[in-house]
Each structure stands twice: as C-alpha cells, then as structure tokens.
Amino acid sequence: MIDGEDRARDGLGTKRMESGRGHVVAGLLHHCRTVKDTTEDGAATESTLLEVSVHPGCGNEVACGRTCTAVLEALSARPGEPGSRWWLAQVGALTPQARELEAVASVERMPLKGLLLRPQQLKYFSDGQWPEGFHSEAFHRHLQSKFNVSQLKAVEQSLWPLASMDRRVKASPVTLVQGPPGTGKTHTIMGILNAWHLLQYQRHYSTLEDCILRKLSGAQTSDLDLTGVNEILEVNDGGIHPLPKILVCAPSNSAVDELLRRVLRDSFVDLKGTKYGPRMVRVGAADSRKISEQSKAVFVDAIIDDYMSFSPERVDEEFSKLTNFLTSLSKSVAQLSYQVAATNGASRKAAAGQLARELHRKEKYLLRLEMLECVRVVEGRPNDTRSARESLEILLMKEAEIVFTTLSSSGRNIFSRLHMPFRSVLVDEACQATEPATLQPLIHGCEHCVLVGDPQQLPATVLATELSGTNFSRSLFERLMAAGARVRVLNVQYRMHPMIRHFPSAYFYDGQLVDGPNVKSRTEDVLTGDGCLGPLRFFDVAGGGEARTSSGSLTNESEAKKCVTLARELVNAAKGRPYTIAIITPYRAQVALVKRRIQESGVRGAAGPVLVDTVDSFQGREADVVIFSCVRSAMGPGGIGFLADVRRLNVAITRPRRALWVVGRAASLRASPVWREFIASCEDRHCFVAKSSAERWLKH
Ligand SMILES: Nc1ncnc2c1ncn2[C@@H]1O[C@H](COP(=O)(O)OP(=O)(O)OP(=O)(O)O)[C@@H](O)[C@H]1O
Ligand SMILES: [Mg+2]
Q: Which residues sit opposite 538 in a β-bridge?
C-alpha cells in the first residue's frame, strides 16, 4: 500500500509529467540495475539501466504479456523531434499488489485452505499433548523461568499440531495469540520458535541416527567412504524427518528486525538447557542503514555482497580449503561408519550420532562450494551478476532453518523456486496486515501457523477509498476471531510503569491489564518527581511552528526543539544509566527534522543514540523513555487528521517502559474524544504540565 505521504510525493512526479510537452506513456518497470563501465581514458563510470515495458500504443491492454517498446520507437523516430527528452516518474508500486493477488490465486494449493475458509472448526481448542520424546526437565525449567502461565499455554498449543509424528493427534493447526501492548506477544514468539526448532531438529537427528544404525549395520566395510555412505542413506525410506524449515514474518521491516534482534540477543535453549543459535537468514529489502552489525551476519544481501567481492585468487583459495576439508571428512565418515557397522551397544550409538553430525558438516561444505561456483561463473563480468545473486540467495535460503522476512517479501517468486515447503509459519503484528498480505507466507506448504497480534493497535493502511466498507483492511486474524476462533489471550504486561499503563488499560482494554512483577518491583529512580520529569507527563505547548512540506507531510520546528531539550534533560538526570530514548511522531517530515536537530545538538544517551521514528514504524518496539511529538497544533477542516486515530494513539503511548512525555497543544488535541480523555486522565493524576510552565521549562 502507498501511504498518504508517498502519494503526495507521487503527485510531484505527475505534475512534472503534465508540465512537459508531449506524451505520457505508462509502463511497468521490471528491473533496475547499476551498470559499471570504464571510459576510453580509463575512468570508472556508473549509470542506471531501467528495463521498462511500455504498452499503450501497441493496441493491447497494459498486460499484453510481452515487452513492447513500439510507442517509444515510434515517438523517437518522429521527424522534427530527434533525441526527444523523456522524464521518468513513478506513479506507484505494483509489486506488492501483484504478489498479494498471486497469493489469493494460490489458495487452492494451500494445505490450510479448508480450515481458513471454514474457521468454525477453530472454535474449540482441540485436545493436545506435549510431543513424544520431548520431555526434558532442563527445557521445561527454562520455559517456566521465562514465560508466565498464559504465555506457556500459547507455546504448548503451538506445539500440539507437531505432537505426534504419525499425526494421530489432530490438534488445531492455527494458533491465535492476542494481547495488549507489552504483554509479551513477541516474547512468546521466542518460546514458540525455540520449541518448534528444537523439536524438529531433535526429530531430524534421531531419525537420521536410526537410519544410520538400521542401514549401516549389515553394510560392506569396503563401501564405507563418504560416497558409499551417502548412497546407502540416500535410499531414504521416508523415515528421516526433515530439518526445521520455519518462516517468520511481520508486515514491516522494523517488526521483522525486532524479532531477529531478539533471537540473536537471547539465542535458543536445547534439551540440556544449553544456549545455541539456529541457522537463520534475513531476506528482503530491509533498510541496510538500520541493520545492526550483529544482524548483518545473517542478512542475505550482506552475505551475498561479501561473496561477490571475492577476488579470483580468494575463490581459488576457498575452493581448495573446502576440498581439503571434504577429503578429511570422507576419512572420518569411513571410520565412523566402520564403527557403526562393527561395534554394538553404546559405542555404536555414539558413532552413529557423530556420523550424523559429520554428514551435516558435509552438506555445509558442499553448499559453500556451490556458492563459490556461482561467484566463479560471473568472474570478469561485473554487469552480469543478477542471476548469480539469485542463485546465491536460493542456496542460503535452502540452508537456513529459519527465514525472517516481511509478509510482502514472502510473496517473492524465489520462494517457489526453492522447491522446499515451509511447514511452520509464524506472523507477528498479524493485525497490521490485510488478509491477502497474510496469505503470502501460507502458500509455501504451510501446515501449521501462529498468528500473533492485537486488533486494538494499528491496522493495515489502505488508502483506496473504493475499498471503504469492503472489509479489505480487516486482517486474517480478525476474520478468524469474528468467526469464533478461540484465542490465547495474554494480559500481564511487563513493559509500562503503572502510571503509563493506567490510561491504555482503562480506555482500550476494559481495565484488564495486570502489571507483571518486574513492573511492580521497579523502584524508581531519577525519573520520579524531579522537576518536570516523571513517568507520565503531558506538556501543553503553545501553537505555531507547524508547517507543511512539499511532500504533504507536517513539521513543527518548535516541538522538535522541545523534544531535544527533553532528551538533554533526561540524559543529564539519568547520570549514565543506560536508558534507551526514543522520539516518535506520526509525521515523517517531523522525523527527519527531529533527527537533524538531535544530530546538531549532539545529545546521546548512555545506551546509544536517540532513536527517532514514526509511530507506525515503532509498533512492536519499546524504549525506556518515549517522547511523543504531536506536531499538529492548528486544526484543519478535517480536525487533527490521522493523529485522532485511536489505534495510533494506543501504539504511541504504550511504547515506553519508564517514562512517557507527550508534547502537544492540548486545545487542538481535545477536539478528538480519545485525546480529550487522555489529557483529562493526565490532569486527574497531576501529570499535566500547563502551558506557562511547559514553555518556560522547555525553553531551548
Ligand atoms: N514473562 C515475562 N517475564 C518477564 N518479562 C517479560 C515477560 N514477557 C514479556 N516480557 C518483557 O516485556 C516487554 C514487552 O514484551 P513484548 O515486546 O514481547 O510485548 P508485546 O506484547 O509484543 O508488545 P507490543 O504489543 O508492543 O508488540 C519486553 O521487554 C519483554 O522482554
Ligand atoms: Mg510485539
């Protein structure tokens, strides 16, 4: 979907087209790549090559199915207009819509089709059981120490469909987890992913070991080199359980990266209670500037860039290293196979386990060899790397046990080219996506999925007015819920100071939110009662300072400076405590302005730079202190615009852990019922800083 601000930006391009004399030709941009070249005198040049298909003049509809440049050719050949000049203006992106359409058209081949079309079957939690062979005290202790009872129930339920390998147990393959902000929905996902991964990994290894024991016991010892063992095992009678293949998605890049950040930070825990890291990759066009160093190690584009930068000598060097590894591996495989064939009892079992691990190492080395092969193919042809990059991406995705990507990127063709099903799918922020968007990760062979979300937070952005009243913006989660599907509800919140939790709990969640023990025991600290600072403050500021940018977005210079003052005050009051600080606002132009002002001021928290982002991008994230710049001080004909969206306000005021400071003009905001109540609640609890004090205190 294009949002309002993007649409305004597109308007700029359209105007440019209109002002030019001549012709407007619509087309689909298929590909855009940078071409590097050298001039005759040896200087490096770079230009952008666009591959566009243009259709209007060929007499066919837009999608005539072939690349048609008839119109361009005819126009450029017109007498009197040699070398005519063309502007390229983007009208909008069609790719996301095309992918969603493809997903809807693929419903027929979805294993979950019947259930999603007849969700009445999801009305009851069917009986489930903890999977066979998955009882471990250490793992249970870990789960119990990390998750509360309702979170644990959600983890357990998501395991039920996997409980029995022979599928005797029929448990609901769809788990819905709902909860207000800070109740640990994303936290629970970590438990689900860990349990899914560990269970499938265990099963793979134990079935591989069984297969080794079964097939190698009578084998001729002369056959037992690497190739021989492979040949024996490759006659797979279907007994070897596949390695985990899990797809983890969210509607936005920032939500996906939040999930990835948490897995990288916390790791998984195995049956002995030891930490381990799964093999995972992050695919899709994430904003590389926002990716942490840690995430880059699993970010497919960064890995591919690294491979593509190898010199021919480096490729040769890596090749010979890997070939040597494989030769020594072959010897170890022969030795272990001999042990399996010739011994018995515990040493035979141990050898089988070791052999299974060696065979996995072999897979890894072979994959690396294939990757080097892809690089070798394009050596000396720097302009021709597209298919090599694609092949590398496919190899990396094949190897990964968990793939992280956005819903939209899960609709890319590359997924069908993998020829590997993603049987387990998990979607965070599932209420922030339309149903066609959520279908995208489910069409790759998904047999069980977990949807996690909160219908009281931001829904999908749908701008097409033609779609109003059609339920198009309704999420799959909401449809299933409306059809009566049972939902696992989480209601203990671990994020917000009770002063911050009070209003959203009362207004959005019928007062149902309960504070977790960590919130209750958090003894405060510098932010309580010191001057104007405190866990909750509404700073009523004078109007003015608001401006509309050429892109249609809004800024407020005066508020931007006040936010900087607040951030500086906080850093001083925190006295080196590593509090994370975020400044959020509904408007993109204000984000850019505040970023500039923060940079100029040099204000920086002990935990790192001050984060500045839109409310929408901050959904699912949290910070110790959140400063919210409302921006809008004058009321337009439409009131206070999308600032009045109750769900946007809910997201904005539920991000902080220790303090929420809102900067806005109360008189304008009171025009909206929800803002009126929020401001009244701040006044009742003595958290409202009147204009005169606020202006004096926040003087920059
Ligand atoms: N059982 C728990 N024990 C201790 N801390 C927890 C527990 N569950 C969640 N938390 C912590 O509470 C905070 C909020 O959790 P999380 O971000 O998962 O909530 P959420 O429901 O996904 O919120 P949002 O609706 O904003 O996405 C995190 O810092 C998380 O580590
Ligand atoms: Mg979350």
A: 662, 688
493 CB near ligand 1 (under 6 Å): no
Q: Is the CB of 454 under 6 A from ligand 1?
A: yes
Instruction: Enumerate residue ranges in the chain where pLDDT < 50.
Output: 1-21, 56-65, 79, 529
Nearest CA to ligand 1 atom 31: 187
DSSP states of 269-289: E-TTS-EE---EEE-S---GG
First vs last C-alpha separation in the chain:
39
Closest CA to 405 of 550, 256, 540, 235: 256
Q: Which are the contacts of 413, defined by CB distance < 8 A and separation ≥ 6? A: none
Among the listed residues 254, 31, 277, 269, the one whose alpha carbon sits nearest the alpha carbon of residue 140? 269
What is the reported pLDDT for 285?
Answer: 66
Q: Distance (Å, rounded) from C-alpha 551 to C-alpha 567?
A: 28
Residue 151 Cβ < 6 Å to ligand 1: yes
Q: Which atom of ligand 1 is nearest to the CA of 258?
A: 17
Return the structure tokens found at 367. 């994959």
Q: Which ligand is nearest to the CA of 190?
A: 1
Are 159 and 196 in contact, with CB atoms under 8 Å apart?
yes
196-216 pLDDT per residue, tens: 999 999 999 888 888 888 877
- Going by alpha carbons, the residue nearest to atom 8 of ligand 1 is 184
pTM: 0.85
For the Cβ of 184 lying below 6 angstroms from any atom of ligand 1, the answer is: yes
Q: What is the pLDDT of residues 610-639, one digit of tens each?
A: 999 999 999 999 999 999 999 987 766 656
Alpha carbons 156 and 175: distance in angstroms, whole number: 10
